[in-house]
Amino acid sequence: MKTTTVRDKTGSITVRLSGVLSPTTQTTVRAAIDKAAAECPAAVLVDLEGLRQTTAGHLTTLASASYQARETWGVPVLLYGADPGIARDLGAYRSFVALFEDRDQALAAVRAHVPRWMRRCLTPVSSNARAARALVDQACIAWGLHAVREDARLVVTELAANAILHAVSDFEVVVSCPGRYLRVAVQDASTAMPRTVVPGIEHGRGLHLINAVSTHVGATRIRGGKIVWALLRTDR
Predict the structure, then answer these.
(1) Model-level pTM?
(2) Contacts of residue 158, Cβ cutoff 8 Å, sequence gap at least 6
């Protein structure tokens, strides 16, 4: 089983599955969906066009991964592109999975039901830390997330400062709230990972502050750079 993860400008993450779904590959599929959901994107789209199965029972992996993403992270998982046989068998799990005929239909559902997503591209100048805070302010006010607004401002200030000082590249700030977490993320063109994700190494003060106010902090390498993100619970 081959899994490929793609991030796009809609705020969603697509997990493409290619191969046979079997007892030996179920763990791989579930791990790929879980990892994508843990970043709290607007949604996780699962492309089933390349998926083959041995028995209908193995599709429970897709149902359980969808349920876990929704319950743990508040992130919807939308499946699309299944062949007729797999689509028919997934009908047994209709209470747990959202299945669409193609990617366009899945994206339309994301836009209709997950509108809490904002993005801004910025240049690496010190004044743009203020612009990043302004985006967080706009999001928190629009979505009524006043309890986490100050912490979110602190997080985006530190993430933007790191991008400006160390990546020295244009960077993108994304703020989203698909469920119980507010996700604040900064993408830049540097492949150097922040030291907070390397155990046992002394961290900088700014990264300590991010850890102190966030429920989860992580970093993901992508083609052409990385995304550093933090999750803040919205129900505290």
Answers:
(1) 0.71
(2) 206, 207, 209, 210
